[in-house]
Amino acid sequence: MKKRLRQSNIIFGIIAAISVLSGLVTTAASAQAASAGAAQGIELSPALVELNADYGKTYTVTIKITNVTASDLSYTTSADDFNAADETGSPHILMDSNLPTTASIRSWVATVPQFTLRAHQSKVITAQITVPTNAEPGGHYGVLRFSGKAPELKDTGVGLSASAGVLLLVRVGLPSDITEKASLASFFAAQSDKQSSFFEAGPVTFVTRIKNEGNIHVKPVGSIELHDMFGGLVSTIPVNGDKSNVLPSSIRRFEGEFKKDWMIGRYDANLTLSYGTHGQAITNTISFWIIPYKLILIGLFILATVIFIFSRMIKVYNRRIIAKSKHENTIKNKKNTSKQD
Fold first, then answer.
1. DSSP assignment of 152-179
2. Which CATH number does the domain housing residue 110 bear?
3. CA–CA gap between residue 82 and residue 92 (Å, rounded)
4. Least confident of 82-96, 105-119, 176-190, 323-337
């Protein structure tokens, strides 16, 4: 009994030790992850600034920056141009932009003096943007970046611990200088990123691709009206509900989903968008079919099986009736023959 008790105490001690060690490891890992996450924290407001600017004028932009890390950080600023990286609208920062000063925002933004923020401290700073008198008309796109590092490392060129930026969208020129022109690159229905006009079932994703052929960003906003084969309105799907921009010389993709599994027949999707200061319109209509052919085939197979079984049963029944009738007639004939004898 004592031996068993001793063994139980040893096993309990091992389990307790493992639990304590696991807790310490988990706590250390969590603390390290939290520290790493906090070290990347810069909060900027607003994240996007849009300006309608005139030639030769200077504009002041007010930005609130918050150090959400657990350490003091010293901040420097820099400005770069950007364009659209892909059809999602993600910005592609041009670190080595070779645009002329008439087109490059990086040369329009005045340098913001270096400053330091304590942990969780906020500060409101101002940045000045001066538009050249000979600036190219249209849209100009840049980012004002804030890079923070520990104060003791601010002049070493190493130790970058936080970086974020405010996007700048600057519209320059008179209305006669601005060209707002967008076109429909494509509009189609798809499932799993595959375009088609025939589907087995829902849901269906509608893809709208807008090409900006002007010199200023546009915000195409509208909806897709989905009608069934009888003309009834099935659903209205918003397009670009968050009013995202399409930059010049780029294509942006917008997706909307009709989340209904059971659908059958032909459907028409009517796209209506508007953009620009004059409410220019983009419209298009596509048609597609949803046929649950597998279910139909299964149903036909079941129906054919039922018909086959039913027909066989009828044949067997008829045979039995005929056989019974023949048997009864035979007996009746025999009786009649016996009476005559």
1. GGTTTT--EEEEEEEEEEEEES-GGG--
2. 2.60.40.10
3. 5
4. 323-337
